[in-house]
Specification:
Blueprint: H1 2-12, E1 20-25, H2 28-31, E2 32-36, E3 41-44, E4 49-54, E5 60-64, E6 71-78, E7 87-94, E8 102-108, E9 117-123, E10 132-135, E11 145-152, E12 155-160, E13 163-169, E14 185-192, E15 212-224, H3 234-237, H4 244-256, E16 258-261, H5 275-278
Antiparallel strand pairs: 1-15, 2-5, 3-4, 4-15, 5-14, 6-11, 6-15, 7-8, 7-14, 8-9, 9-10, 10-16, 11-12, 12-13
Length: 279
């Protein structure tokens, strides 16, 4: 049933692929390893809930047992509540090595009452510097919300509660590298970054509020195969752009909630914006 329902949903949005494997990871032990932080990283509630904590001694983290090459990754997070200034909750895909690829969500902590900043970035062959940042239109500490990455050969889409907030298109035809050859694992960590995370490092972590804890549930991975069946053409595989509703949602988020876009940063690029920004 999980395969059938996932397949039908993806067909509705026009994703034409020859094979798909959907993994509904109700069991974190099956899909993830707790990699650092000792007992600050925990799996509980029948293996359906995971938490990471940060104190003055250490943060914590986990990674997927499996690597992925193209797919959709969904995870529900409830972020550190209260005064989380100085903390960063990172949730991302990454390969290994100096020329690694990476697709990032990072949640920058705040003073109590101030909004979290959602920081996104894309690395290719070890190079990033493609940041976009957003405020969220809800309090991400009160309830769980779904943060998703769709990674296909022609684009990467970042989504929050299934609303697209960013699209990074494959611009290899313009000479821009695109992550498409290196399988990536899923990683997450909660760590102290008070040298830069909150107001550029002006606000430091208040350790009297520790431990800081973030929660995870309802992980789901849907792998896309780029092998084409006889009835599916390469064009069909490559035409999964956002529909009209998705484009409206994207414009709404970028108009009202985007607070930084590297493509508009004249100070960083006085000689001209990166080529993907100009197209």
């Amino acid at each position: 049933m999980a395969y059938s329902s996932t397949h039908n949903m993806l067909m509705l949005v026009g994703i034409m692929v020859s094979t798909m494997v959907a993994t509904c990871a109700g069991n974190f032990h099956q899909d993830f390893d707790l990699t650092w932080g000792g007992n600050r990283a925990k799996i509980f509630n029948g293996d359906k809930l995971l938490s990471l904590s940060l104190d003055k001694v250490s943060g914590s983290g986990f990674q997927s047992k499996k690597e992925y090459l193209f797919g959709r990754i969904d995870m529900q997070l409830k972020l550190v509540a209260g005064n989380s200034a100085g903390t960063v909750t990172a949730y991302y895909l990454s390969s290994q090595g100096l020329t690694h690829d990476e697709i990032d969500f990072e949640f920058l902590g705040n003073l109590s009452g101030d909004p979290y900043i959602l920081h996104t970035n894309v690395f290719t062959q070890g190079k990033g510097n493609r940041e976009q940042q957003f405020y969220l239109w809800f309090d991400p500490t009160r309830n769980f919300h779904t943060y998703s990455i769709i990674w296909k050969p022609q684009h990467i889409i970042f989504l929050v509660d299934n609303i697209p907030i960013r699209v990074f298109k494959n611009a290899e035809s313009l000479g821009v590298p695109f992550p498409k050859n290196q399988p990536m694992r899923i990683y997450s960590s909660l760590w102290n970054a008070d040298d830069w995370a909150t107001r550029g490092g002006l606000v430091k972590t208040d350790w009297s509020k520790a431990p800081f804890t973030a929660y995870y549930r309802n992980f789901k991975a849907t792998e896309f195969s780029s092998r084409f069946s006889k009835s599916n053409s390469r064009a069909e595989w490559q035409t999964n752009e956002l529909d009209a509703y998705g484009r409206r949602r994207l414009r709404w988020v970028q108009k009202y909630f985007m607070i930084y876009n590297y493509c508009n940063d004249l100070k960083r690029f006085p000689q001209g914006f990166p080529v993907e920004c100009r197209h």
